[in-house]
Design goal:
single chain; 14% strand; 9 strands; 3-stranded mixed sheet; 48% helix; alpha/beta; globular
Length: 281
């Protein structure tokens, strides 16, 4: 199978899925979510594979949705409708993306995510769907669109951090580095960038010696605890809210400001701490 947005390779009992849009910091375009799901399904169907490693090519893991396309491009696109908008159209689009990312979580074979550079916005959604995340100490993770124009649809922040720390991250939109992410319990480990490959490979090799049926049963048992806590319902609300954030007064401001001044300038203003122009809320 040929992929446009990622690379897929196997060696022994390990499959490697590498997001491969390095010229755009592996930003999520229209095809990437479905290709991630297809690659995960391919690894699950391969009887030789026991473990999956997920990584990103180039300077970072993933910079989130390709908002230069979704925010800068004038007019409608899959992320923004004209007003009045139909929330169910938006929900259908974003639910497909969420389900595609969550193929990592639901994979019968464990997934280790290797994060270098950045895993921000939708990139953090992807990373936190993995079973175990290992970051470079100097890598950054966070969800800046929580300030304007986003709500993390996989909702994994609260399940990994608990309520208070999830609120600390999502009520500010701040980024934290790998050391801080490990300290707060968001990720399993953070190591010097020069040791990242070795740390991920060592853990993958250790898991790869376990029978596939044992790996599957342990993962299903742990995941079921989260399902019992209402994970699917939380994701439904998060995905609906994500669409609302893009069509609220502030969300429509962000889109028009991006069209006029460019996405990066809109992000600078959004993240500056200054009040959103025209917002009374």
């Amino acid at each position: 199978m040929a992929y446009e947005t990622l690379l897929y390779e196997t060696a022994g009992r390990i499959a490697r899925i590498t997001l491969n849009r390095p010229e755009r910091l592996n930003a999520i375009g229209a095809k990437m979510p479905g290709e991630i799901r297809a690659a995960v399904e391919r690894a699950n169907a391969d009887d030789a594979i026991h473990v999956i490693i997920l990584a990103g090519a180039g300077r970072g893991f993933c910079s989130g949705y390709d908002l230069k396309d979704f925010a800068e491009t004038k007019g409608e696109n899959p992320g923004v409708q004209s007003m009045p908008w139909d929330p169910m159209i938006d929900f259908g689009f974003m639910k497909r993306c969420t389900d595609d990312f969550f193929s990592l979580w639901r994979s019968y074979k464990p997934v280790i995510c290797k994060v270098h550079g950045y895993a921000v916005a939708g990139g953090s959604d992807i990373a936190l769907c993995a079973d175990i995340v290992i970051m470079a100490e100097d890598a950054k993770i966070g969800y800046p669109p929580a300030r304007v124009w986003g709500c993390p649809t996989t909702a994994m922040w609260v399940y990994r951090l608990g309520a208070e720390k999830a609120k600390r991250m999502l009520l500010t939109g701040d980024l934290v580095d790998g050391r801080q992410a490990k300290e707060m319990g968001l990720v399993y480990d953070a190591v010097p960038a020069s040791e990242l490959d070795a740390a991920v490979d060592a853990l993958a090799q250790r898991m790869a010696g376990v029978p596939k049926n044992q790996l599957m049963m342990q993962k299903l048992m742990i995941n079921q605890a989260y399902e019992n806590m209402g994970l699917a319902t939380t994701q439904m609300f998060a995905t609906l809210f994500d669409g609302i954030t893009r069509h609220s007064p502030e969300g429509m401001w962000f889109k028009s400001y991006s069209e006029e001044h460019g996405f990066h300038e809109a992000v600078r203003l959004r993240d500056s701490g200054e009040p959103i122009p025209g917002s009374k809320r």
